[in-house]
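Hi P.,

Sorry for the delay on this. The queue was packed all week, but I finally got your sequence through. Input first:
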Amino acid sequence: MLFYSFRMNAPRLTWTDHHACSCWQLVRDAYHAPAAESPLTEPLARLRAAFAEEHVAAEVFLDHVVPLSFSTANQRELAERALVKTIGRAETGMRLNRFHGLVIDIMAAADKAVPPHAKPSPGFLQQQWNQRGDGLLACIVNFSEPGILADEADIVRIDPDLPIVGRGYLPYNLVCIADVPGDVSAELPEVVRLAWLIALLNLDLPRYAEQVRLNPLMTVVALAMLPLALQASRLLELGGGDEATIRQAIASWLPIEDDRDRKTETLLQWWDVYQSTRPHFAAGLSALDQLLA
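Then the structure:
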């Protein structure tokens, strides 16, 4: 029987299907490499040009527009809110009309690619979460520290036929994840992927985020939390938690395009030290940030 040394208040999860958010998650994942003959190819090319010409950071804009689409139905308002979050209100006005037009065109194209997805009853992933989720999160807390989890989160279920990567949006306490009918890998259960994404959502708090100065916050926290989630999976006998499984998870779950091999080896080195010293998690993030630099 597994003993949890820390008490945990499980986050309150709201499961939902959200068409616009699903569309923008598809756009987010297709931005760098849209599928051949995709209706998104042409509008995404115009979006890339707009980012370059208007000096708007693409990754920052996309990381805001996806979760903002969850709460913003008006497309002009969506473009404005995403721009303000990315470049500030003073710089938004002169760019708003162009990006509003792009948001309309991209949403129209994505709408053709994203089928309606609504399940009145819990699907496979939600059923697995109801059985295993609290145990996984309790283990993650045990490997890190009390208070590391967000109080609540929205889980957007996305059609599993879409080529999307599950992603957590830290400032918005929102996770987008494919509503799969079953596990793709026995070593990497989807419920563990979801636990990993949920465990990231509080790591934009200052006590954690201020420790990451040399690399993008999402890169560092996603890597750091990964072995903790996989170790939780191993202890609950859901999947593997060894070095090979960590490598497999990085390849499958993390869209790292640059220097993947070095980052993987660095994480494995960090994890060995973390297990033996068990520092405060913020200090662990600082150490990993420095190792990755």
